[in-house]
Write a structure and sequence with these properties.
Distance between the termini: 26 Å
Structural class: mainly alpha
Strand content: under 5%
Number of helices: 4
Largest sheet: none
Order of helices and strands: HHHH
CATH architecture: Alpha Horseshoe
Radius of gyration: 12 Å
């Protein structure tokens, strides 16, 4: 599901469509996919298909970090300096 979202996010083989990307990312995130959670954070950080909102980006990046079994910072979705801290849940 996350990969289909990336196709729409990047316009690879399909017309670029951030709303469809978000739909697929949401499905993957609901299934516990940490990369999809980080990708949703990236949409908010960049304002792609959603209003730019760094607080929501941080929330999704933190979810991704807690859902990941190890250190987690996917390429292309790096947090902005000073906005990602992870207190214990």
């Amino acid at each position: 599901m996350n990969n289909i979202g990336r196709f729409y996010d990047q316009g690879r083989g399909v017309p670029q469509d951030y709303a469809k990307a978000r739909e697929w990312y949401d499905k993957a995130a609901a299934a516990g996919d940490a990369v999809a959670m980080a990708n949703i954070g990236g949409l908010y950080a960049k304002g792609h298909g959603v209003p730019q909102d760094y607080a929501k980006a941080r929330k999704w990046w933190e979810k991704a970090a807690w859902a990941s079994p190890g250190p987690f910072l996917p390429a292309g979705n790096l947090p902005l300096p000073g906005i990602l801290t992870m207190p214990a849940p």
